[in-house]
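Quick one:
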Amino acid sequence: MKFTFILSLLFLSKPLWAQNNLYPVLFKGKWGYINDTGKVVVPYTYSLARPYKGNYATVRIGRELMGSEKAYSFIDYSGKLISLAQYEDMGSFNGGYCPVKLNGKWGFINEDNILVIKPVFLLANGFSDSLALVKDEKGYGFIKTSGEYISTERYSDAKDFKNRLAPVCKENKWGYIDVSGKMVINSNYSNALSFSDTLAPVRINAYWTYINKSGIPIASPIYDFAHKFNDGLAAVKLKGKWGFIDLRGMEKIKYQFDQVGDFNQMVCPVKEGKLWGYIDTSGVKIIPCEYDYAESFNFNLAKVMKGGKILYINRANQIIWRED
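Output:
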């Protein structure tokens, strides 16, 4: 019976959705997907469902523990299962490739579910700027879509390429390499994050600032912590409170929040006291702080929690879906 159901998913021909905005939801121990109106368009079938990225979403079939059996596959926006479950774990598709785990090691498949890079890595991230961060027995490095390393250099830690630069760590100091593997911003930092909107957060000793792609800081290191830029704004923590600065390093939204997320689609979750709400890029509160937990908006909905129940809300603060 179960096998018949899976095969029927494989050969679905009629689309189940009206818009490419689908969100994973849990009902009675099974995961499915809703659309912007809260309608269930991919049935509650899976033991795990991750958000869509690109054209596909990763799902787990059955109740197997993570990595214990080959239980992972991926579905398209119609809900069609692209293949029978055959992977121990999966990442998400990016640039046409997805990291997959087989026999305890990571490799990559393409969108035709063909294994194009053999599973030989201890860890693997998705491709970004056509390069993927991987880890082998020697440390972290970066590979091309051919599976070849960009250089023989290995690092004790590293983060994804963004804007053709990647932060890398050797001997507890962080710097940045370009897509050829050349060190272009020297290893002077106690920590470093990926670039976004031409700037990257870096920590110098105990405090954070931002540098441009030439390695020049836009301000003195004064922040307790700093996020990457999104929608032209970055969250920074100063003297125990969070606010937001613009690309010039100027205060845009005053330091007033106890915790924040990141802007996405011009809206950001913020916490005042014990409760979360949302602000726009001018700092105006568009959804009051009434939730116990809140995530950034993804497409038109955001996941929040209230009274121990998970909800999806829209920008008008209307409940679109509620956990039963």
